[in-house]
Inverse folding.
C-alpha cells in the first residue's frame, strides 16, 4: 500500500474567545441597539429610493488607532446632525484589510502593529470601538472579509461591504445572505460589474452551508436571504463613476431584475489611487444629483483626521490621525465633500418642487 506524504506549511492552533462569550462580556447597550436598528431601516430606505437623501459611507481606509477613530467619530456625529436632512451619514469602520500579497491585515489581525497577531485582543478592541461609536448615535459600516468576524461584530453594523476581491466568492455570498444589514457588493478589480450583480442575486436567495455558530461549533447553517444587496462602483482599470458607466451598470441591473441603484466609491479605482481625486468624484456625482439623477443612492469616501498616508516600521512614531493603509482625505476636505453632496440634494429638491408647481399652476 502506497503511503501519501503531505508537504505543507505547519499550522499552529491557539484558542480564541467564542463569539457568544465576547458578546456577553461586551453587550450592546440600549443606545447602541437603537442606533443600529434605526439606521438599518434608514439606510435600506435610502438605497431603495424611499427617501430623497444620499447615503454617505465615510471614514478611514482602515482603523489602526481606536483613539483617533473615536475623535473622528465625535466630529462626524456633529456633521451627521448638521446635514441629517440631506445625507444619511455612516462611519466607515474597517478592521480587516485585504491584501494582494502580504502586509498588515488590520486591527483585528495585528492590533499592536508589530507582527504579534494578538487576534483576541483585536476582537475586543474592535467590539469596544463599535460600541463606543454607536452609543454616540453614529451608525457604522465595515467590510466583511473573514468569515468568522461577523459573529463578533455584525450585530452592531448598519451597512456592510463585500470587497472587489471577494465578491466572486461563493462563501462570501452565502455569508451576505445571512447578514442583518444592507450589503454593498463591489465590482471586480478589473472593473467588471457582472460578478457583483451575480453576487447580489445569489445573496438574495436562502442558502444552506457549513459554518460556525456563536459557540464556535461547526454547524449546518440556513440563511433566509438578504434583499438589500446593491452594487458599488469602485472603478477598475479605469474609473467608472461617470454617467456612461452608471447608465451601463443600471441597464445590467435592470436586465437582472434588480433595482437600478448604485453607490459610488470615490476612492480606489475611481480616484486612481490619488486621495485628492475623491473631491472630483464627489463633485461629479453632486452635479448629476443636482440635475435630478436618482439612481446614485450613495457615495463612499476614504477620510481621516490628517490627509495622506504613512508607513508603519520599527522605531517610527506615527502621525496621529493619519492612515497607515490607503491615502485619505483630511478632515477639512471631508467636510467640503459632505457640504457639496448635501447641496446637490437641496438643489434636486428645489428642481422637483418647481416641476410640481409648474404642473399645478393653471395654463
Amino acid at each position: 500500500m502506497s503511503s501519501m506524504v503531505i508537504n505543507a506549511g505547519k499550522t499552529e492552533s491557539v484558542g480564541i474567545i467564542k463569539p457568544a462569550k465576547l458578546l456577553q462580556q461586551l453587550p450592546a447597550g440600549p443606545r447602541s441597539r437603537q442606533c443600529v436598528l434605526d439606521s438599518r431601516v434608514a439606510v435600506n430606505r435610502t438605497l431603495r429610493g424611499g427617501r430623497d437623501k444620499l447615503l454617505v459611507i465615510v471614514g478611514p481606509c482602515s482603523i489602526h488607532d481606536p483613539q483617533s477613530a473615536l475623535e473622528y467619530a465625535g466630529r462626524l456625529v456633529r456633521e451627521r446632525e448638521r446635514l441629517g436632512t440631506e445625507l444619511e451619514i455612516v462611519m466607515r469602520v474597517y478592521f480587516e484589510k485585504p491584501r494582494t500579497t502580504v502586509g498588515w491585515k488590520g486591527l483585528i489581525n495585528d492590533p499592536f502593529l508589530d507582527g504579534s497577531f494578538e487576534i483576541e485582543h483585536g476582537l475586543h478592541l474592535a467590539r469596544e470601538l463599535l460600541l463606543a461609536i454607536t452609543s454616540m448615535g453614529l451608525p457604522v459600516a465595515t467590510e466583511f472579509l473573514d468569515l468568522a468576524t461577523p459573529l463578533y461584530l455584525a450585530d452592531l453594523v448598519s451597512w456592510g461591504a463585500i470587497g472587489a476581491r471577494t465578491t466572486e466568492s461563493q462563501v462570501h455570498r452565502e455569508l451576505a445572505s445571512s447578514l442583518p444589514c444592507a450589503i454593498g457588493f463591489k465590482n471586480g478589480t478589473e472593473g467588471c460589474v457582472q460578478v457583483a450583480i451575480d453576487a447580489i442575486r445569489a445573496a438574495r436567495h436562502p442558502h444552506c452551508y457549513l459554518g460556525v455558530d456563536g459557540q464556535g461549533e461547526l454547524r449546518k447553517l440556513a440563511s433566509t436571504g438578504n434583499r438589500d444587496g446593491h452594487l458599488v462602483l469602485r472603478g477598475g482599470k479605469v474609473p467608472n463613476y461617470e454617467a456612461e458607466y452608471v447608465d451601463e451598470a443600471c441597464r445590467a441591473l435592470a436586465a437582472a431584475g434588480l433595482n437600478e441603484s448604485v453607490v459610488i466609491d470615490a476612492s480606489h479605482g475611481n480616484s486612481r489611487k490619488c486621495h485628492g481625486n475623491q473631491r472630483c468624484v464627489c463633485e461629479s456625482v453632486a452635479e448629476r444629483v443636482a440635475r435630478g439623477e436618482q439612481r446614485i443612492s450613495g457615495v463612499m469616501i476614504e477620510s481621516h483626521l490628517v490627509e495622506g498616508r504613512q508607513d508603519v516600521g520599527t522605531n517610527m512614531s506615527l502621525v496621529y490621525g493619519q492612515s497607515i493603509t490607503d491615502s485619505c482625505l483630511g478632515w477639512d476636505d471631508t467636510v467640503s465633500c459632505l457640504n457639496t453632496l448635501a447641496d446637490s440634494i437641496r438643489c434636486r429638491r428645489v428642481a422637483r418642487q418647481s416641476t410640481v408647481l409648474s404642473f399645478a399652476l393653471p395654463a
